[in-house]
Amino acid sequence: MTELALVTLNINGKSHALRVEPRLTLLDAIRDQCGLTGTHMGCEHGVCGACTVLFDGDPVRACLMFAVQAEGSLVRTVEGLAEGGELNPVQRAFIAHHGVQCGFCTPGFLMLATGILEKDPDIGEDELIEVLSSNLCRCTGYRGILAAVKAALAEMRGTKR
Amino acid sequence: MKPAPFTYHRPRTIDETVHLLAELAPLEGRVLAGGQSLVPIMAFRLARPAHLVDINAVAGLDGLSTRDGVLRIGARVRHAAFHRQVVDGPLGAMLAQVVRHIAHYPIRMRGTFCGSLAHADPAAEWGVVAATLDAELVAVGMRGERRLAAGDFFHGAMETALIPDELLTEARLPILPQGTRFGFSEFSRRAGDYAMAMALAVLRLEGGVIAAPRIGLGGAEAAPRRIEAAEAVLCGEAPGEAVFRAAAEAAAAAILPLEDPETDAQYRGELVEAMVYRALTQACAPGARA
Protein backbone atom coordinates (compact mmCIF):
# COMPACT_ATOMS: atom_id res chain seq x y z
CA MET A 1 0.00 0.00 0.00
CA THR A 2 1.44 3.32 -1.04
CA GLU A 3 0.64 6.64 0.51
CA LEU A 4 -2.79 7.99 -0.39
CA ALA A 5 -2.92 11.11 -2.50
CA LEU A 6 -5.51 13.82 -2.32
CA VAL A 7 -7.17 14.66 -5.59
CA THR A 8 -10.21 16.65 -6.55
CA LEU A 9 -11.97 15.38 -9.63
CA ASN A 10 -14.35 17.63 -11.52
CA ILE A 11 -16.84 15.33 -13.17
CA ASN A 12 -19.80 16.75 -15.07
CA GLY A 13 -19.30 20.04 -13.24
CA LYS A 14 -19.36 18.51 -9.77
CA SER A 15 -16.30 18.32 -7.49
CA HIS A 16 -15.33 15.06 -5.84
CA ALA A 17 -12.58 15.31 -3.20
CA LEU A 18 -10.93 11.89 -2.95
CA ARG A 19 -8.10 10.13 -1.18
CA VAL A 20 -6.72 7.60 -3.62
CA GLU A 21 -3.81 5.33 -4.23
CA PRO A 22 -1.79 6.75 -7.13
CA ARG A 23 -2.31 3.50 -9.03
CA LEU A 24 -6.08 3.96 -9.03
CA THR A 25 -7.14 4.54 -12.62
CA LEU A 26 -9.42 7.40 -13.54
CA LEU A 27 -11.92 4.71 -14.55
CA ASP A 28 -11.93 3.06 -11.13
CA ALA A 29 -12.16 6.44 -9.41
CA ILE A 30 -15.16 7.46 -11.52
CA ARG A 31 -16.97 4.20 -10.91
CA ASP A 32 -16.00 3.14 -7.41
CA GLN A 33 -15.15 6.37 -5.61
CA CYS A 34 -17.65 8.70 -7.29
CA GLY A 35 -20.36 6.11 -7.88
CA LEU A 36 -20.79 7.07 -11.54
CA THR A 37 -21.18 3.60 -13.01
CA GLY A 38 -22.37 4.74 -16.43
CA THR A 39 -18.75 4.59 -17.60
CA HIS A 40 -18.17 0.91 -18.31
CA MET A 41 -15.14 -1.21 -17.57
CA GLY A 42 -14.22 -3.59 -20.34
CA CYS A 43 -10.66 -4.60 -21.10
CA GLU A 44 -8.72 -2.34 -18.70
CA HIS A 45 -5.87 -1.97 -21.16
CA GLY A 46 -7.08 0.57 -23.65
CA VAL A 47 -8.36 -1.68 -26.40
CA CYS A 48 -12.15 -1.78 -26.13
CA GLY A 49 -13.13 1.85 -25.51
CA ALA A 50 -16.03 1.07 -23.15
CA CYS A 51 -14.49 3.48 -20.62
CA THR A 52 -14.13 6.44 -23.01
CA VAL A 53 -14.74 9.77 -21.25
CA LEU A 54 -14.10 13.37 -22.25
CA PHE A 55 -10.98 14.77 -20.59
CA ASP A 56 -10.81 18.53 -21.12
CA GLY A 57 -12.98 17.88 -24.17
CA ASP A 58 -10.87 15.08 -25.65
CA PRO A 59 -12.20 11.52 -25.85
CA VAL A 60 -9.73 9.37 -23.90
CA ARG A 61 -9.54 5.91 -22.34
CA ALA A 62 -10.23 6.36 -18.61
CA CYS A 63 -8.44 3.05 -17.92
CA LEU A 64 -5.16 4.46 -19.29
CA MET A 65 -4.96 7.42 -16.92
CA PHE A 66 -4.54 7.63 -13.21
CA ALA A 67 -7.04 9.56 -11.13
CA VAL A 68 -4.23 11.71 -9.69
CA GLN A 69 -3.55 13.00 -13.19
CA ALA A 70 -7.03 14.49 -13.48
CA GLU A 71 -6.51 17.20 -10.85
CA GLY A 72 -7.49 20.53 -12.39
CA SER A 73 -9.10 19.01 -15.47
CA LEU A 74 -12.71 18.73 -16.53
CA VAL A 75 -14.02 15.21 -16.94
CA ARG A 76 -17.33 14.43 -18.60
CA THR A 77 -19.05 11.07 -18.45
CA VAL A 78 -22.22 9.68 -19.95
CA GLU A 79 -24.17 10.92 -16.92
CA GLY A 80 -23.34 14.47 -17.98
CA LEU A 81 -24.72 14.30 -21.52
CA ALA A 82 -28.39 14.89 -20.90
CA GLU A 83 -29.34 18.44 -19.97
CA GLY A 84 -32.40 19.18 -17.88
CA GLY A 85 -33.61 15.64 -18.32
CA GLU A 86 -33.37 15.88 -22.12
CA LEU A 87 -31.05 13.54 -23.99
CA ASN A 88 -28.36 15.13 -26.14
CA PRO A 89 -28.56 14.82 -29.97
CA VAL A 90 -26.17 11.85 -30.02
CA GLN A 91 -28.18 9.94 -27.44
CA ARG A 92 -31.45 10.62 -29.30
CA ALA A 93 -29.87 9.53 -32.60
CA PHE A 94 -28.59 6.27 -31.06
CA ILE A 95 -32.19 5.43 -30.11
CA ALA A 96 -33.66 6.49 -33.45
CA HIS A 97 -31.08 4.62 -35.55
CA HIS A 98 -30.73 1.50 -33.45
CA GLY A 99 -27.16 2.22 -32.38
CA VAL A 100 -27.73 0.20 -29.20
CA GLN A 101 -28.18 -3.51 -28.71
CA CYS A 102 -26.79 -4.97 -25.49
CA GLY A 103 -25.68 -1.50 -24.39
CA PHE A 104 -22.33 -2.38 -22.88
CA CYS A 105 -20.30 -0.32 -25.36
CA THR A 106 -22.88 2.47 -25.57
CA PRO A 107 -21.50 4.91 -22.96
CA GLY A 108 -18.07 4.77 -24.60
CA PHE A 109 -19.51 5.32 -28.07
CA LEU A 110 -21.66 8.21 -26.84
CA MET A 111 -18.63 9.95 -25.35
CA LEU A 112 -16.47 9.25 -28.41
CA ALA A 113 -19.17 10.58 -30.74
CA THR A 114 -19.96 13.59 -28.56
CA GLY A 115 -16.26 14.45 -28.42
CA ILE A 116 -15.91 14.23 -32.19
CA LEU A 117 -19.04 16.26 -32.84
CA GLU A 118 -17.84 19.00 -30.52
CA LYS A 119 -14.23 19.04 -31.73
CA ASP A 120 -14.64 18.34 -35.42
CA PRO A 121 -18.24 18.83 -36.62
CA ASP A 122 -17.11 18.97 -40.27
CA ILE A 123 -15.53 15.51 -40.18
CA GLY A 124 -15.91 13.47 -43.39
CA GLU A 125 -17.46 10.00 -43.54
CA ASP A 126 -14.20 8.10 -44.07
CA GLU A 127 -12.60 9.83 -41.12
CA LEU A 128 -15.71 9.25 -39.04
CA ILE A 129 -15.58 5.51 -39.77
CA GLU A 130 -11.92 5.49 -38.75
CA VAL A 131 -12.78 7.26 -35.48
CA LEU A 132 -15.68 4.90 -34.72
CA SER A 133 -13.34 1.94 -35.25
CA SER A 134 -11.64 3.07 -32.01
CA ASN A 135 -14.26 1.36 -29.88
CA LEU A 136 -15.47 -2.21 -29.94
CA CYS A 137 -19.11 -3.14 -30.43
CA ARG A 138 -19.87 -6.83 -30.81
CA CYS A 139 -23.63 -6.53 -31.42
CA THR A 140 -24.64 -3.89 -33.90
CA GLY A 141 -22.16 -4.41 -36.71
CA TYR A 142 -21.55 -0.63 -36.45
CA ARG A 143 -24.09 0.30 -39.14
CA GLY A 144 -26.59 1.64 -36.63
CA ILE A 145 -23.87 3.49 -34.74
CA LEU A 146 -22.54 5.10 -37.90
CA ALA A 147 -26.05 6.08 -39.01
CA ALA A 148 -26.75 7.55 -35.57
CA VAL A 149 -23.58 9.64 -35.46
CA LYS A 150 -24.13 10.89 -39.01
CA ALA A 151 -27.69 11.89 -38.09
CA ALA A 152 -26.48 13.69 -34.97
CA LEU A 153 -23.84 15.49 -37.05
CA ALA A 154 -26.46 16.55 -39.58
CA GLU A 155 -28.70 17.80 -36.81
CA MET A 156 -25.88 19.79 -35.21
CA ARG A 157 -24.87 21.32 -38.54
CA GLY A 158 -28.51 22.21 -39.20
CA THR A 159 -28.97 23.99 -35.91
CA LYS A 160 -25.68 25.85 -36.31
CA ARG A 161 -26.56 27.37 -39.66
CA MET B 1 -5.74 -5.92 -14.33
CA LYS B 2 -4.72 -3.34 -11.75
CA PRO B 3 -1.25 -1.80 -11.85
CA ALA B 4 1.07 -2.56 -8.94
CA PRO B 5 1.51 0.23 -6.37
CA PHE B 6 3.86 3.09 -7.15
CA THR B 7 4.74 6.52 -5.83
CA TYR B 8 3.61 9.38 -8.01
CA HIS B 9 5.68 12.48 -8.77
CA ARG B 10 4.54 15.50 -10.72
CA PRO B 11 7.49 17.83 -11.39
CA ARG B 12 6.98 21.31 -12.89
CA THR B 13 10.36 21.92 -14.54
CA ILE B 14 12.83 19.97 -16.65
CA ASP B 15 15.48 20.49 -13.97
CA GLU B 16 13.22 19.05 -11.28
CA THR B 17 12.36 16.13 -13.58
CA VAL B 18 16.00 15.30 -14.25
CA HIS B 19 16.84 15.42 -10.52
CA LEU B 20 13.91 13.12 -9.77
CA LEU B 21 14.99 10.70 -12.50
CA ALA B 22 18.57 10.69 -11.20
CA GLU B 23 17.28 9.80 -7.75
CA LEU B 24 14.47 7.43 -8.74
CA ALA B 25 15.57 5.71 -11.95
CA PRO B 26 17.87 3.35 -9.96
CA LEU B 27 14.83 2.60 -7.77
CA GLU B 28 12.75 1.51 -10.74
CA GLY B 29 11.44 4.96 -11.52
CA ARG B 30 10.07 5.71 -14.96
CA VAL B 31 8.80 8.65 -16.96
CA LEU B 32 5.03 8.84 -17.52
CA ALA B 33 4.18 10.86 -20.63
CA GLY B 34 0.99 9.96 -22.51
CA GLY B 35 0.88 6.58 -20.80
CA GLN B 36 -0.79 4.83 -23.71
CA SER B 37 1.89 2.13 -23.87
CA LEU B 38 3.19 2.20 -20.30
CA VAL B 39 -0.16 2.01 -18.49
CA PRO B 40 -1.37 -1.10 -20.38
CA ILE B 41 1.87 -2.94 -19.64
CA MET B 42 1.50 -1.85 -16.01
CA ALA B 43 -2.05 -3.24 -16.02
CA PHE B 44 -0.64 -6.57 -17.19
CA ARG B 45 2.11 -6.21 -14.55
CA LEU B 46 4.72 -6.59 -17.26
CA ALA B 47 6.07 -3.32 -15.88
CA ARG B 48 6.02 -2.58 -12.15
CA PRO B 49 7.69 0.79 -11.75
CA ALA B 50 8.08 1.80 -8.12
CA HIS B 51 7.96 5.49 -9.05
CA LEU B 52 6.29 7.34 -11.89
CA VAL B 53 7.57 10.76 -12.85
CA ASP B 54 4.65 12.37 -14.68
CA ILE B 55 5.90 14.99 -17.15
CA ASN B 56 2.43 16.25 -18.13
CA ALA B 57 2.82 19.38 -15.98
CA VAL B 58 6.44 20.14 -16.91
CA ALA B 59 6.82 23.61 -18.42
CA GLY B 60 8.58 24.03 -21.73
CA LEU B 61 7.82 20.61 -23.19
CA ASP B 62 4.70 21.50 -25.18
CA GLY B 63 6.45 23.38 -27.98
CA LEU B 64 5.74 22.58 -31.62
CA SER B 65 7.59 25.09 -33.75
CA THR B 66 9.72 25.55 -36.84
CA ARG B 67 13.05 27.33 -36.85
CA ASP B 68 16.10 27.15 -39.09
CA GLY B 69 14.52 24.55 -41.36
CA VAL B 70 13.72 22.23 -38.47
CA LEU B 71 10.42 21.15 -36.90
CA ARG B 72 10.86 20.93 -33.13
CA ILE B 73 8.49 18.60 -31.31
CA GLY B 74 8.43 18.90 -27.52
CA ALA B 75 7.99 15.92 -25.22
CA ARG B 76 4.38 16.76 -24.39
CA VAL B 77 3.19 17.10 -28.00
CA ARG B 78 0.52 14.49 -28.56
CA HIS B 79 -0.04 12.39 -31.67
CA ALA B 80 -3.32 14.20 -32.32
CA ALA B 81 -1.42 17.45 -32.94
CA PHE B 82 -0.45 16.00 -36.32
CA HIS B 83 -4.00 15.28 -37.48
CA ARG B 84 -3.76 18.69 -39.11
CA GLN B 85 -0.68 19.78 -41.04
CA VAL B 86 1.65 21.31 -38.48
CA VAL B 87 3.94 22.72 -41.17
CA ASP B 88 3.25 23.56 -44.83
CA GLY B 89 4.64 21.30 -47.50
CA PRO B 90 5.58 17.64 -47.68
CA LEU B 91 6.67 17.14 -44.04
CA GLY B 92 3.34 18.28 -42.60
CA ALA B 93 1.47 16.21 -45.18
CA MET B 94 3.57 13.15 -44.38
CA LEU B 95 3.06 13.45 -40.62
CA ALA B 96 -0.69 13.93 -41.16
CA GLN B 97 -0.81 10.74 -43.24
CA VAL B 98 1.34 8.64 -40.92
CA VAL B 99 -0.48 9.69 -37.71
CA ARG B 100 -3.68 8.05 -38.94
CA HIS B 101 -1.96 4.68 -38.61
CA ILE B 102 -1.17 5.13 -34.91
CA ALA B 103 -3.57 3.08 -32.78
CA HIS B 104 -6.96 4.82 -32.54
CA TYR B 105 -8.27 8.35 -32.10
CA PRO B 106 -8.60 8.40 -28.27
CA ILE B 107 -5.11 6.91 -27.91
CA ARG B 108 -3.77 9.66 -30.19
CA MET B 109 -5.35 12.25 -27.89
CA ARG B 110 -2.97 11.23 -25.07
CA GLY B 111 0.05 9.46 -26.53
CA THR B 112 3.06 11.62 -27.39
CA PHE B 113 5.52 11.75 -30.28
CA CYS B 114 8.60 11.72 -28.05
CA GLY B 115 7.09 9.10 -25.74
CA SER B 116 6.73 6.79 -28.71
CA LEU B 117 10.39 7.27 -29.59
CA ALA B 118 11.56 6.72 -26.00
CA HIS B 119 9.38 3.62 -25.62
CA ALA B 120 10.96 2.31 -28.86
CA ASP B 121 8.43 -0.31 -29.80
CA PRO B 122 9.73 -1.76 -33.10
CA ALA B 123 6.25 -1.32 -34.62
CA ALA B 124 5.96 2.39 -33.80
CA GLU B 125 5.27 4.71 -36.72
CA TRP B 126 7.15 7.73 -35.38
CA GLY B 127 10.30 5.65 -35.01
CA VAL B 128 10.23 4.99 -38.73
CA VAL B 129 9.71 8.69 -39.46
CA ALA B 130 12.59 9.65 -37.15
CA ALA B 131 14.93 7.05 -38.63
CA THR B 132 14.02 7.78 -42.24
CA LEU B 133 14.48 11.55 -41.88
CA ASP B 134 17.60 11.27 -39.68
CA ALA B 135 15.88 13.16 -36.88
CA GLU B 136 17.91 14.73 -34.10
CA LEU B 137 16.80 13.82 -30.59
CA VAL B 138 17.52 16.03 -27.60
CA ALA B 139 18.06 14.34 -24.24
CA VAL B 140 18.55 16.26 -21.00
CA GLY B 141 20.13 14.64 -17.95
CA MET B 142 22.23 15.47 -14.91
CA ARG B 143 25.27 15.91 -17.12
CA GLY B 144 23.53 18.34 -19.43
CA GLU B 145 22.09 18.09 -22.90
CA ARG B 146 22.96 15.52 -25.54
CA ARG B 147 21.86 15.55 -29.17
CA LEU B 148 21.48 12.09 -30.61
CA ALA B 149 21.09 11.12 -34.26
CA ALA B 150 18.13 8.83 -34.85
CA GLY B 151 20.51 6.31 -36.38
CA ASP B 152 22.30 6.05 -33.03
CA PHE B 153 19.19 6.32 -30.85
CA PHE B 154 17.39 3.03 -31.45
CA HIS B 155 19.36 0.12 -30.03
CA GLY B 156 16.72 -2.59 -30.27
CA ALA B 157 13.21 -3.47 -29.21
CA MET B 158 12.36 -1.10 -26.32
CA GLU B 159 16.00 -0.10 -26.09
CA THR B 160 17.41 3.33 -26.81
CA ALA B 161 20.56 5.35 -26.21
CA LEU B 162 18.87 7.23 -23.36
CA ILE B 163 20.50 6.73 -19.99
CA PRO B 164 18.26 6.34 -16.94
CA ASP B 165 18.40 9.94 -15.69
CA GLU B 166 17.77 11.40 -19.13
CA LEU B 167 14.51 12.82 -20.42
CA LEU B 168 13.89 12.98 -24.15
CA THR B 169 12.83 16.63 -24.29
CA GLU B 170 12.53 17.25 -28.00
CA ALA B 171 12.62 15.61 -31.42
CA ARG B 172 13.82 17.64 -34.39
CA LEU B 173 12.78 16.78 -37.93
CA PRO B 174 14.25 18.45 -41.01
CA ILE B 175 11.61 20.36 -42.97
CA LEU B 176 11.39 18.71 -46.36
CA PRO B 177 11.83 21.03 -49.33
CA GLN B 178 8.94 21.57 -51.75
CA GLY B 179 9.04 18.90 -54.41
CA THR B 180 9.92 16.14 -51.95
CA ARG B 181 7.66 13.14 -52.51
CA PHE B 182 6.73 10.50 -49.99
CA GLY B 183 4.79 7.28 -49.66
CA PHE B 184 3.88 5.35 -46.52
CA SER B 185 2.46 1.86 -46.34
CA GLU B 186 1.72 -0.31 -43.32
CA PHE B 187 0.31 -3.79 -42.85
CA SER B 188 -1.56 -5.03 -39.81
CA ARG B 189 -4.33 -7.58 -39.46
CA ARG B 190 -6.85 -5.03 -38.16
CA ALA B 191 -6.84 -1.24 -38.51
CA GLY B 192 -5.09 0.27 -35.51
CA ASP B 193 -3.25 -2.90 -34.53
CA TYR B 194 0.51 -3.08 -34.21
CA ALA B 195 2.15 -2.98 -37.62
CA MET B 196 3.59 -6.23 -38.91
CA ALA B 197 5.66 -4.22 -41.35
CA MET B 198 5.72 -0.66 -42.63
CA ALA B 199 7.77 1.34 -45.08
CA LEU B 200 8.30 5.04 -45.60
CA ALA B 201 9.76 6.25 -48.90
CA VAL B 202 10.98 9.83 -49.28
CA LEU B 203 12.54 11.04 -52.53
CA ARG B 204 12.68 13.71 -55.22
CA LEU B 205 12.27 13.35 -58.96
CA GLU B 206 14.86 15.41 -60.83
CA GLY B 207 15.08 15.31 -64.62
CA GLY B 208 12.92 12.21 -64.65
CA VAL B 209 15.09 10.20 -62.25
CA ILE B 210 14.96 9.46 -58.53
CA ALA B 211 17.18 11.69 -56.38
CA ALA B 212 18.08 11.50 -52.69
CA PRO B 213 15.94 8.45 -51.93
CA ARG B 214 15.32 7.42 -48.34
CA ILE B 215 13.69 4.12 -47.45
CA GLY B 216 12.81 3.48 -43.81
CA LEU B 217 11.39 0.29 -42.33
CA GLY B 218 9.55 -0.43 -39.12
CA GLY B 219 7.95 -3.46 -37.54
CA ALA B 220 10.32 -5.66 -39.50
CA GLU B 221 13.42 -5.63 -37.33
CA ALA B 222 14.13 -4.96 -33.64
CA ALA B 223 14.56 -1.27 -34.42
CA PRO B 224 13.50 1.09 -37.21
CA ARG B 225 16.19 2.16 -39.66
CA ARG B 226 17.03 3.33 -43.16
CA ILE B 227 17.84 0.59 -45.64
CA GLU B 228 20.79 1.81 -47.70
CA ALA B 229 20.73 -1.23 -49.98
CA ALA B 230 17.27 -0.29 -51.21
CA GLU B 231 18.16 3.39 -51.55
CA ALA B 232 21.20 2.50 -53.68
CA VAL B 233 18.98 0.60 -56.12
CA LEU B 234 16.75 3.66 -56.60
CA CYS B 235 19.30 6.44 -56.86
CA GLY B 236 19.51 7.90 -60.37
CA GLU B 237 16.94 5.51 -61.85
CA ALA B 238 13.74 6.46 -63.63
CA PRO B 239 10.75 5.49 -61.47
CA GLY B 240 8.90 2.40 -62.61
CA GLU B 241 7.60 -0.95 -61.54
CA ALA B 242 10.83 -2.84 -62.23
CA VAL B 243 13.03 -0.53 -60.17
CA PHE B 244 10.46 -0.43 -57.35
CA ARG B 245 10.47 -4.25 -57.32
CA ALA B 246 14.25 -4.35 -57.27
CA ALA B 247 14.40 -1.90 -54.35
CA ALA B 248 11.72 -3.83 -52.48
CA GLU B 249 13.62 -7.08 -52.94
CA ALA B 250 16.83 -5.41 -51.80
CA ALA B 251 15.05 -4.20 -48.64
CA ALA B 252 13.66 -7.64 -47.88
CA ALA B 253 17.11 -9.17 -48.38
CA ALA B 254 18.77 -6.59 -46.12
CA ILE B 255 16.76 -7.17 -42.96
CA LEU B 256 17.25 -9.39 -39.97
CA PRO B 257 13.53 -10.11 -39.61
CA LEU B 258 11.62 -10.25 -36.36
CA GLU B 259 9.91 -13.59 -35.93
CA ASP B 260 6.92 -14.55 -33.85
CA PRO B 261 4.60 -17.57 -33.88
CA GLU B 262 2.33 -15.97 -36.48
CA THR B 263 4.98 -14.34 -38.62
CA ASP B 264 8.03 -16.30 -39.73
CA ALA B 265 11.06 -14.72 -41.39
CA GLN B 266 9.86 -15.47 -44.88
CA TYR B 267 6.44 -13.92 -44.35
CA ARG B 268 7.99 -10.83 -42.71
CA GLY B 269 10.30 -10.47 -45.69
CA GLU B 270 7.40 -10.70 -48.11
CA LEU B 271 5.50 -8.06 -46.13
CA VAL B 272 8.52 -5.77 -46.23
CA GLU B 273 8.78 -6.23 -49.96
CA ALA B 274 5.12 -5.39 -50.46
CA MET B 275 5.28 -2.34 -48.17
CA VAL B 276 8.37 -0.89 -49.87
CA TYR B 277 6.83 -1.44 -53.29
CA ARG B 278 3.59 0.25 -52.26
CA ALA B 279 5.36 3.17 -50.58
CA LEU B 280 7.44 3.79 -53.72
CA THR B 281 4.42 3.50 -55.99
CA GLN B 282 2.60 6.04 -53.83
CA ALA B 283 5.57 8.42 -53.73
CA CYS B 284 6.03 8.39 -57.51
CA ALA B 285 2.37 8.35 -58.54
CA PRO B 286 1.64 11.07 -61.08
CA GLY B 287 -1.01 12.62 -58.87
CA ALA B 288 1.07 12.44 -55.70
CA ARG B 289 1.72 15.62 -53.79
CA ALA B 290 5.15 17.01 -54.62
What does this structure look like?
- The complex is a heterodimer of chains A (161) and B (290).
- Chain A has 161 residues and is an alpha+beta fold.
- Chain A has 2 domains: 5-80, Ubiquitin-like (UB roll) (Roll), CATH 3.10.20.30; 89-160, Orthogonal Bundle (DNA polymerase, domain 1), CATH 1.10.150.120.
- In chain A, 35% of the residues lie in helices and 16% in strands.
- In chain A, strands 2-1-5-3-4 form a 5-stranded mixed beta sheet, with helices on both faces.
- Chain B is an alpha+beta fold and 290 residues long.
- Chain B has a 5-stranded antiparallel beta sheet with strand order 4-5-10-6-7. Chain B has a 4-stranded antiparallel beta sheet with strand order 11-12-13-14. Chain B has a 3-stranded parallel beta sheet with strand order 1-3-2, covered by helices on one side.
- Chain B is globular and about 60 Å long.
- In chain B, 51% of the residues are buried.
- The interface between A and B is medium-sized, with 33 and 29 residues.
Describe the SSE topology.
The complex is a heterodimer of chains A (161) and B (290).
Chain A: E1 5-11, E2 14-20, H1 26-33, E3 52-55, E4 58-61, E5 74-76, H2 89-96, H3 106-119, H4 125-132, H5 143-160
Parallel strand pairs in A: 1-5
Antiparallel strand pairs in A: 1-2, 3-4, 3-5
Helix pairs in contact in A: 2-5
Chain B: E1 7-9, H1 14-24, E2 29-32, H2 38-43, E3 51-54, E4 64-67, E5 70-74, H3 90-99, H4 105-110, H5 113-119, H6 125-132, E6 136-141, E7 144-149, H7 150-153, E8 154-156, E9 159-160, E10 167-174, E11 181-187, E12 197-206, E13 209-218, E14 225-226, H8 228-234, H9 241-254, H10 265-284
Parallel strand pairs in B: 1-3, 2-3
Antiparallel strand pairs in B: 4-5, 5-10, 6-7, 6-10, 8-9, 11-12, 12-13, 13-14
